[in-house]
Amino acid sequence: MLYPIATESRTLTDLNGVWKFMIDRETETVDPASPIPADRRMAVPASFNDQTVDRDVREHSGYFWYEREFSVAKALLNERVVLRFGSATHEAWVYVNGKQAAYHKGGFMPFEAELNEYLEPGKNRLTIRISNLLDHTTLPVGNYSEKKTDDGRLIRNVDENFDFFNYAGLHRPVRLYTTPKTYIQDITIAPEVDLQNGSADVNVSVESGGSFDEIRVTLIDEDGVEVGEAAGAETSISVKQVHLWEPLQAYLYTARVEGVNDGEVVDVYEEPFGIRSVEVKDAQFLINGKPFYFKGFGKHEDTYVNGRGLNEAYNVLDISLMKDMGANSFRTSHYPYSEEMMRLCDREGIVVIDETPAVGLMASFNFDISALERGDFTDDTWEVLDTSEAHEQVLRELVARDKNHASVVMWSIANEAANYADGAYEYFKPLFDLTRSLDPQNRPCTYVNIMMATPKADRSSELVDVLALNRYYGWYVQNGDLKTAEEKTRAELKEWSEKHPEKPIMYTEYGADTVAGFHSPYGEPFSEEYQQEYYQMNSRVFDEFPNFVGEQLWNFADFQTKFGIMRAQGNKKGIFTRSREPKMTVQYLKQRWSSIPEFGYKK
Ligand code: GCB
Questions:
Q1: CATH number of 293-595
Q2: Which of 220, 411, 473, 581 is positioned for an S-S bond with 488, CB 3.0–4.6 A?
Q3: What pLDDT digit, counting tens, does each position of 67-118 carry?
Q4: How many CB atoms lie within 10 A of CB 398?
Q5: Distance 570 CA to ligand 1 centre (A)
Q6: Across the beta sheet with 278-281, what order do the strands follow?
Q7: pTM (2 d.p.)
């Protein structure tokens, strides 16, 4: 799916700004045939939740509406006019002048609709009904319940089956773009690198809406110099003396695609892309044939006021903080991030593990993982949940959206599912097969393994290319006892190495809640000292294993969660506060990561 841009054949209009908004109390029918009786204003893009001091609004579970007017210049009405949402969280019904023009379920993916048949000259009205409900069929997974008040009102409730606040609304840009009636619909780029000769064959395939006499593809380097061209919907262009995209050393080419009819260029689209190879081999993660070491984070899209809404200043700052620490990567925990962030990572050379919103696939979700000590721990997740359909849909959409990004080096199919329970293999096998069949770049695939899915309990790790582990020895278990935690960490890594000697291992989460400014001469849990000692302990063990290929800690910054006795204004495992002030351990990690090279750390 192409990102909306303006070119000589396309226009782009932002519909961001302050919209009308109302909560749907479901006491009266709201009919989008007339302007909705909105009583509030909300900025777009952003979550609605933190833009108000009204607790009922902030914590609302159910339906809500956004509305605004927009005009389309008459000259554009002969073009194809497309309305595009970067996302609407989690389910949306879109009306233009009262008529339904689009519907989409899944809160983290773009969707669009051609508007021509709905548009009127002059002003048009755009109304959106959104639901933030989650249940056992959705991703993420929520525990849904409802009750009636004494006066008969329906109260819906979603108990998040995951550890982040269920922010909702129009989180990403809303835009109108135009294309000619015959247009370039999609572009797929799959470079094949010949590392020995320093060249590449760039395979480009173009889908069009309507038919062109000819499709032309030109590859342009960063200096604006043409380095190759070809014609056809399926082409392969060879690039000599290729400039590779490398972690922290990004280099982006542009594929300029032209659709031609009667000798005239009708539509033009320009797609930036990087040339690099990714491969898992002999317990190593190879980028451009060299063993890469992941240094970085699990993150969230989470900032003050914007909530989960796009915050480009924070995205730029976060990457700047990462680079300053010598980090090179992050995982889009626990859902696909904005297209703007993905493009920024391509540009900045940040390596990304791209995760679906499959989080909470665990019937027994809570913070008590002491059950881990019992070897026989299991549950009935795969009988209780019904998420396969949503999971397949989001994998199709995610690969379609992110397939061309050089920054994306691996797909994470889920975070912390019940991989210790019977049925896990049967659930995941078709999803891995699907992802592998969809990805034109054949990236490695993984899921992120929860602590209870120990080497003995795990039912499905043969499916993954990389063992990506979330481990909390020294926090949720052996809290305050880093000595025992160290032994447990070492013992488990040894067991995994024996079980799958050919698979590289990395940590995709490890962390300790830390209250900024809380110090302890005894290194007590929650203190900045404890957080630092916790990371030092883990680093020591990581360095003992040659097949251990990366450390992504939990979490980049403190973030908002649902209420609970384990959370004080959210999760405090950030090494930065929510406003990005560093905690003490940042200095330690900066020293460590700055001395670990991107390539060849483990020999
Ligand atoms: C996890 C989850 C993450 C939580 C984290 C924690 O394993 O993947 O979503 O926030 O633990 O801090 O408990």
A1: 3.20.20.80
A2: 473
A3: 999 999 999 999 999 999 999 999 999 999 999 999 999 999 999 999 999 9
A4: 26
A5: 12
A6: 278-281, 284-287, 290-291
A7: 0.98
